[in-house]
């Protein structure tokens, strides 16, 4: 009798948490699991959505996957993969790739890809400069949108100039422009990203064929040492730390400081204090327009909105500067190691043809790869922070008219529901009647807030459905770290050795230390000097914390995930894509991280069980 195919829980077997049924049903119908979804494989996208999703925040998945699929399927025409479908249950986003398996279709798509992608590769610098101009223009358009407001009476100029449009029309016009800009931003986001991965993957495949024994980590180190905008915010904190020491105001920065008191004290200090404050303003615009998450949650505020993250990093950098320690990213060493690796492996090639191909592929990877991280500053951070803050302005207006208690409650509405609430207010203002919203939304907001809190405490399966024979989407392997071998490990629940977790070797080095299990960005303040960070996923804007931690471990991620890239750029030992580190490792437990082997060992004698 043939063995039954290995399977994670089927989507149909996952029950909606009791008491949250209405909140689950409020997500758009096209994001709900249906019986036919049992036939497919899905995995929990904890890389981008590690926390339960507020209803408005689901626009971050919707807009992103609209754009990603468009460029995969219809614009650049990737040969073996199309877009990504997404579903949500109990506030958690699961995704499934759409593979191309028919050889004739693959061949036809490959011919299209050659015409389309290679034009971008040949004109990369010119098109990328245009891309930056497009993004800056899009940001300027969003900044120029007016704050929503409703006067008691129209200004007399409306009639005396023949304007012919009343103030309530501006509400719907502004809101729809905000949504249009956000969806357009995601199209810009994916214009180059998939091609950046594609160039690296082509080089990766060549190396695997030419050097059968080469490790994934060795290949990834050949593209390390990049200059990208997403690293600039951390560089600005270091600059501010150096200026504080140079100006003699460094004693104001310590772990117990009150930020408002520090700012007021420096302002009253005199010229040197005000000079440092001027330096702070220089850094803030634009470099503090980064959020503490990865750009998918409204409450992951930017450094400009909340200075806690950059200021928390200042004392550590200042102490190192006082001690004469180097606080710079080891860029020169990374470039030297990169160039030596590239040269060493080139010497192993036997033919001029192979060497020419190798030179071409690594040259292209070096040209395009900085975009893989650099785009995040403009898209997930600067623009997304601006977008969410504009939505907050609508929340404030609706709260002022009694639709709910506070502006943040607006994020419990889907983007469709928010438009209906805006129209409700427009109608009431125009007729002089009371809006219906104050009698409709408060109970719904409270219900959904309770659902978010309930879902936050639940254990989420890493995947759903039948395990495929192969994972043939290279991006899913490289970015999310989903391989057939990893899935088998997740299914076995580590039965072979409950004291070990395996994942991708992101950055070499062996470290023993105390595990600090962080399940939300709200908890990052618990990290102490020398801790090993254990999380579902991290991102480049956590890099100021890397001066504190000695190593990092994640549940999700492949060799080209943002965590793996950032770890290599900072020389931090790391293992990514373990599947269940945040569930298997106890906070405060001693562990060993072997970043070169992709191995995490639990050192305490007590076995940590998943249900402990």
Automatic annotation (TrEMBL):
Pfam families: PEP-utilizers (PF00391)
Name of the protein this chain belongs to: PEP-utilizing protein mobile subunit
GO molecular function: transferase activity, transferring phosphorus-containing groups
Organism of origin: Croceibacterium xixiisoli
Domain PEP-utilising enzyme mobile residues, every copy: 527-598
Top-level taxon of origin: Bacteria
């Amino acid at each position: 009798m043939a063995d039954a195919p290995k399977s994670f829980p089927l989507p149909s077997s996952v029950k909606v948490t009791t008491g949250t049924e209405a909140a689950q049903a409020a997500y758009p119908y096209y994001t709900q699991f249906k019986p036919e979804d049992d036939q497919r494989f899905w995995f929990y996208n904890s890389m981008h959505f590690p926390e339960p999703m507020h209803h408005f925040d689901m626009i971050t998945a919707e807009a992103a996957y609209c754009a990603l699929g468009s460029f995969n399927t219809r614009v650049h025409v990737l040969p073996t993969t199309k877009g990504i479908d997404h579903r949500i249950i109990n506030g958690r986003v699961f995704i499934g790739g759409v593979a191309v398996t028919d050889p004739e279709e693959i061949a036809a798509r490959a011919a299209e890809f050659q015409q389309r992608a290679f034009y971008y590769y040949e004109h990369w610098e010119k098109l990328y400069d245009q891309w930056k101009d497009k993004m800056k223009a899009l940001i300027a358009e969003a900044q120029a949108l007016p704050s929503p407001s409703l006067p008691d009476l129209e200004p007399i100029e409306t009639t005396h100039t023949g304007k012919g449009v009343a103030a309530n029309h501006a509400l719907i016009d502004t809101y729809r422009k905000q949504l249009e800009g956000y969806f357009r931003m995601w199209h810009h986001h994916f214009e180059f990203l998939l091609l950046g991965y594609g160039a690296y993957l082509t080089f990766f495949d060549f190396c695997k064929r030419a050097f059968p024994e080469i490790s994934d980590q060795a290949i990834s180190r050949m593209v390390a040492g990049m200059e990208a905008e997403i690293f600039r915010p951390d560089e600005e904190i270091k600059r501010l730390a150096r200026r504080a020491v140079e100006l003699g105001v460094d004693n104001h920065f310590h772990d117990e400081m009150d930020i408002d008191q520090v700012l007021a004290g420096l302002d009253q200090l005199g010229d040197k204090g005000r000079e440092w404050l001027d330096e702070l303003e220089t850094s803030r615009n634009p470099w503090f327009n980064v959020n503490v998450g990865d750009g998918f949650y409204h409450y992951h505020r930017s450094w400009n909105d909340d200075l806690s993250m950059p200021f928390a990093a200042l004392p550590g950098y200042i102490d190192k500067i006082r001690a004469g320690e180097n606080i710079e990213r080891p860029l020169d060493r990374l470039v030297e190691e990169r160039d030596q690796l590239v040269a060493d492996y080139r010497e192993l090639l036997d033919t001029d043809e192979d060497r020419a191909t190798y030179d071409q592929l690594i040259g292209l990877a070096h040209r395009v790869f900085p975009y893989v991280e650099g785009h995040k500053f403009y898209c997930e951070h600067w623009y997304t922070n601006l977008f969410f803050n504009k939505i907050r302005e609508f929340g404030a207006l609706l709260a002022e008219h009694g639709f709910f208690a506070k502006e943040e409650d607006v994020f419990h509405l889907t983007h469709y529901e928010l438009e209906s609430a805006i129209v409700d207010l427009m109608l009431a203002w125009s007729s002089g009647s009371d809006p219906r919203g104050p009698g409709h939304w408060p109970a719904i907001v409270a219900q959904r807030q309770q659902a978010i809190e309930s879902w936050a405490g639940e254990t989420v399966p890493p995947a759903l459905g039948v395990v495929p024979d192969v994972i043939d989407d290279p991006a899913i392997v490289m970015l999310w770290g989903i391989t057939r071998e990893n899935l088998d490990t997740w299914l076995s629940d580590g039965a072979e050795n409950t004291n070990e977790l395996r994942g991708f070797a992101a950055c070499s080095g062996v470290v023993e230390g105390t595990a600090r299990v962080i399940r939300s960005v709200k908890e990052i303040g618990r990290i102490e000097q020398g801790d090993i960070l254990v999380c579902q996923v991290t991102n480049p804007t956590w890099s100021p914390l890397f001066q504190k931690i000695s190593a990092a471990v994640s549940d999700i991620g492949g060799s080209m995930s943002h965590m793996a890239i950032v770890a290599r750029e900072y020389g931090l030992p790391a293992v990514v894509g373990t599947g269940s580190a945040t569930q298997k490792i106890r906070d405060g437990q001693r562990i060993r991280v072997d970043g070169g082997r992709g191995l995490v060992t639990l050192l305490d004698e007590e076995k940590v069980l998943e249900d402990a």
